[in-house]
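Box 4.2: Ligand-aware structure prediction
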Amino acid sequence: MNLLIISGSPRKQSNSLRIAQAAASFLNQSGTSAELWDLQQRPLPIYDGDESTYQQPEVAAWLKSASQADGFFIVTPEYHNGMSGALKNALDFLGGSYFQKKPVALACAAGGGKGGINALNNLRLVIRGVGGLVLAEQCIVDKNDFDEHGRISPEVLPRLEQLLTEWATLSRLLAKK
Ligand SMILES: Cc1cc2nc3c(=O)[nH]c(=O)nc-3n(C[C@H](O)[C@H](O)[C@H](O)COP(=O)(O)O)c2cc1C
């Protein structure tokens, strides 16, 4: 089984990446490996539909990782009530064939003050558009949920881990290989 974790932030020192890394480490400890694609470290060009853009090595690698994935765990930052432009752009490269019958779990890094839900609703709508099986459960981690070392607080971590366990179980059940 191949699992893909996507960190959707273009920022350095990103909380989305911290969530994605916590997810990868939790899965790893439970014996499940997952690839982490960090859109800050591995940005993609702007989607323009051109064949030459698809042939760029990083785009080809992105398509390969997505096509091999049996499930996606997507972490988006909340920017102005929506997902990041970097994440939406990355998803625009992927059509329905990448997501059909694959479980997709969502999490969000928000700014505090009860943010996060709008970005998750926005992302949920887009994943529905590409035919992914979006889990009902989701997880918001806001900036107050991190300690000074960037670790997620013990109040929030179990929610994230429960979501990951459910997602990995469903992905395994539906995996082709
Ligand atoms: C351009 C921009 C827009 C933002 N808009 C919101 C918002 O609408 N709601 C919110 O809760 N936080 C907002 N924030 C705060 C971010 O959600 C917060 O900084 C979060 O950590 C971003 O994730 P990242 O660290 O992975 O980039 C915004 C931050 C930026 C840079």
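In the box above, the bound molecule is flavin mononucleotide. Helices lie at 15-29, 51-54, 57-68, 85-92, 117-129, 157-174.
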